Every structure is written in structure tokens, then in C-alpha cells.
Amino acid sequence: xxxxxxxxxxxxxxxxxxxxxxLTVSTNTVTLADDKQSELQAQKDQAQEQLExxxxxxxxxxxxxxxxxxxxEQYQQQTELITTQIGILQRSIAQYEEDIxxxxxxxxxxxxxxxxxxxxxxxxxEGFKDRLAAMQMLNDGGSIALLSSANNLYQLLTFxxxxxxxxxxxxxxCQQIEAERQELENxxxxxxxxxxxxxxxxxxxxxxxxxxxxxxxxxxxxxxQQDATISDAEAAAEVLAAEEEQARKNLDEAAAQLDAxxxxxxxxxxxxxxTCSLNFGPALPSYKYISCVFGTGGHRGTDFAAAGxxxxxxxxxxxxxxATYHYSWGNYVQIYHGKDDQGNxxxxxxxxxxxxxxxxxxxxxxxxxxxxxxxxxxxxTGNHLHLEMKINGVLVNAANWIxx
Length: 404
Fold this sequence. Notes:
Blueprint: H1 5-141, H2 143-148, H3 153-269, E1 289-292, E2 302-305, E3 311-313, E4 318-326, E5 330-339, E6 345-353, E7 364-365, E8 370-373, E9 384-391, E10 394-396
Antiparallel strand pairs: 1-2, 2-9, 3-8, 4-5, 4-7, 5-6, 6-9, 9-10
Helix pairs in contact: 1-3
């Protein structure tokens, strides 16, 4: 049947309108999808920031606690050292006290000897004075007559010599006693000086002991302060742990919502006429070793340790369903590879890229095409490719399907 020019023109116009409407709807859908992803990403980023802020507080609190514990240990060691030094000083002070007491006993004994010698001197001196008085009386009242009564020169000389001997002997004895007393006095003075020196040394040690006692008291106060800091840190750690748990739950919830959106992105492209031949290629030109296998500790994918900047390939033809940043995956790309002959859908995800992916959502890619480069963004401790694979939206071990 031939169509008239008018009908053809009308049909053409209708098709053009339909295409415009389709493009408009498609554009609006993409815009809405981008807005939704941005919203979910913003929620996730906010939850991530809150978690990281709490984790930073936890880290700082732990550092404060560890610093307090280290200071407390140092103060305790110093206290033990000072306590030992105080013990040594106190024993020395006690020994000086004993020496001082002994020296005091020697001084008292020497003083007693001085007193005895002084009494002996006094007694001798009194006798000497009596004899001098008697001799003076002889000189004044009869000594001349006594000398005159001598019958001969021998008697005269003998009497005079006797008087002289008595006087000289008394003087000699008094001088000897005085010298002995003076020697005892000197010895007593030496003992007192020695005692004074001991007392000075004891006072110096006591001063050191008092100084150490003061330092020990300061250290004990510091230890109490560190104990208070440690207790505060432990209490804060409990509060922060609860806050971290809640923040992690919030993050997990936000991440789950974003993951649900990502799966929806795959589903959006699942109607595309893509046939997955199951002829997958390697994701990397080379790698060092597999650092973590699928399922280990709930691990979602397979980790291939590789040098930073190593090219990452699409393992099969497909459509990029997402290419952005995720708090755990870091920079990542997700690709939908279509359906196999039995109608099973396949998708892969490449995480921890060093920088923003070089492909974008909605872009078609071919097997072996470079989609990014190995890095260590997100939750990662070293350069590697985290590779995930889903069949019908369910995670499977990518190593069973993709050559490596």
C-alpha cells in the first residue's frame, strides 16, 4: 500500500515528535538518576565524615590515654628511684645521728676528765697558796730569826734550800696539772668540732632528704593526675565506642541505599540487547599475587596486588553503569555485560582505582579496554585491584570466571 505524501509527512512528523519526547524523557530520567545518586552519595559522604570524625576522636583519646600511661610509668619509675635514694639518705642520717650521740658521750666523758683535772688543780693550788702564806709569815715574822738560829752554815743552807724546793715543786706540779687540764680542754674542743661537723653533714643530708620528699610528693600528685586522665579517657572511650557503632550503622545504611541504587543502575541497563559470551578476559596485564580471596572474612571480591598505576581492563564488552567514588571501594567502575543464552545477567566491579575513572556511566566499553588504573583509594592498605562479579545480582567468586 502506497502512502500519500500527506500521510508520509504526518508519520514523519509523529516519529520526530516521538524521538524528541523519548530523548526528553531519557534526559530527564538521567538527570533524576544523577540527582538521586548525588543525594545518596551526599548522605553517604556525610555519614562517612561523621564516622571519621568520631574515629579521629577515638584515636586522639587513645593517644591521650597512652601518653598518660607512659607519663604515669615514668613518674612511678622516678618515684621508685627517689624512694630508694630517700632510704639510703635516711640510713646515712641515722648513722650520723648515732655518730653524733657517740661523739656527745665522748665529749661528756672528756668534760668529766677536765672537771677531775680542774679539781685536782684547784686542790693543789689551794695547798700551794697555804704554803706560800706560811712562807710569807716566816718572812714577815720569824723566818729571819729562824735562819739566824742556825748553828752553822750547813744548817742555814739546808733550810733555805728546803724552802726553795717546796716552792719550786708546788709551782711545777701546778704547771703540770694546768697543762694536763689544757690538753683535756683541747681534746674536748676537738670532739665538739667533730660533733659540729657531723651535725652539719647530717643537716645537709636532711636537707637533701626533705628535697627528695618534696619531689616524691610532686610525683605522687602527678601520678594521681595521670590516673584521672586515664580514667577519663577510659570513660570517653566507652562513649565514643557507642557513638562509633551508631555512626557505622548510619554509614552502613547510607552505603546500603547507595548499593541499592547501584544495583538499580545495573537493572536499568539489563534490558539492553547485550549478549554475554562468557569469554571473559583478564582484568590486569600482570599482578604480584592475590592478596585476599573471595569470601575470606566476608570479603566480597578478589584482591589482586599490583603496582600502582597498572592498567585495569574491562573483562568483557558491556555498558558502564557507574563510575564514581565509594567510601569503601574508593574510585570504582561498575559494568553490565548483558545476558547469556540462559538469560543470566553478568556484571563486574573494579575498585580502589588511583584516580577518577576514565570512563563514565552509560558509556559502552569493549573487552580489554582500559577503564582505570590500580591505586589504593577507599578502605585499602596498599595498591591492588578489588574485583567483584555478580550473576543475576548475586556475588560470586570472580576467580572462577575470569582468567588470572
